[in-house]
Amino acid sequence: MFLQRSLKQGSLFCYNHHMIKKRILTGDRPTGPLHIGHYVGSLKNRLILQEDYEEFILIADIQALTDNFDDPTRIEKNILEVTKDYLSVGLNPERVNIVVQSQVPELAELTVYFMNLLTVAQLERNPTVKSEILQKGLTDKIPVGFFVYPVSQAADILAFKADLVPVGEDQVPMIEQSREIARRFNSLYGPVFVEPRELLSDSPRLCGIDGKEKMSKSLNNAINLSDSREAVEKKVMSMYTDPTKIRVSDPGHAENNPVFTYLRTFGTDSERVRELEQGYEKGGIGDVEVKKYLITVLNDFLDPIRERRLQYERDESLARDILRQGTKKAIDVVNETMREVRKAMSLIRFD
Ligand code: TRP
């Protein structure tokens, strides 16, 4: 609620007596289907923001290649899937522009210019890249493309002159580096870029069905937005709960229990959730009963999403057209910036 109100107040500014909407840029790597963790962490915010901001959503296929260059067909396939996920949750293509990163080649051009504006040491300090390198076991064989992806992300953000970038905690270093690059560019070549601000999601990260801290397609612990009713049922029945509660009559723990975390996040009847929590903790209510209820809650949440998805499954040209339109709009915006960039940098153009 607070997020909603404070954002609405700051979403417009006046320019030559016209009210102009501020611009937002967000992005996802298209490496797999989006899940309910994405919904809580970012999609829900994007739905609110689309009302008052000019919103661009980048399907970052170039960035996805930096750690999937050996499997490009996976990325190709997921571009349409992710687009359908966006549309099914209710992102309105009349309001948001969904953009395929690789189809705006000027973003790659800008990345090359930006590479002069920061040092290897600065990139090495980026904590998100650092932990990804460790996680992926890349320490002594870091692909250059992967190492510099924050520069490419800065190019994404700055090329659109985004005022706000809604992200999770792990992306904050990227926005900081984008600001550094913007300042360096502006002081060297002249004022072209806007310094973007991050907009942190106020909802905590959703855990996986295995109880692990993060829901993630690569950990195979996600409930996808495109999962069928049967798939949801199967996944919920296999969920990790309280290992110390063996019989229904045993007292159990509802806190840090993923089944209850999901119920608190997606349940619409908080009274009923509280009752179940109390019964579970005291004894008398067991895993099967709460899981059955969670199946209903999740399917009630996902049904309208599934319903909206149907039309896009039936006719894939709908999603393709939406991508084409969004990308076209992006090309216009980015080209405008690039004209300023080339002029500021004294790059000769023959047009
Ligand atoms: N790095 C983001 C992720 O891993 C994806 C991304 C690419 C992005 N370009 C962006 C996010 C620009 C915000 C703005 O999910």
What does this 3D model show about the protein?
By secondary structure, the protein is mainly alpha-helical. The protein folds into two domains: 2-206 and 316-344, HUPs (Rossmann fold, 3-Layer(aba) Sandwich); 229-310, Tyrosyl-Transfer RNA Synthetase, CATH 1.10.240.10. It is built from 15 helices and seven strands. A three-stranded parallel β-sheet has the order 3-4-5. It has a two-stranded antiparallel ribbon with strand order 1-2. Helix 5 (106-114) packs across helix 9 (149-159), helix 11 runs antiparallel to helix 14 (287-314) and helix 14 crosses helix 15. The longest helix is centred in the C-terminal third of the chain and has 29 residues, at 316-344. The N and C termini lie far apart (49 Å). The mean pLDDT is 93. Bound molecules: tryptophan. Tryptophan binds at residues 25-29, 58, 60, 63, 153, 156-157, 165, 167, 171. Tryptophan (TRP) binds next to strand 3, helix 9 and strand 6.
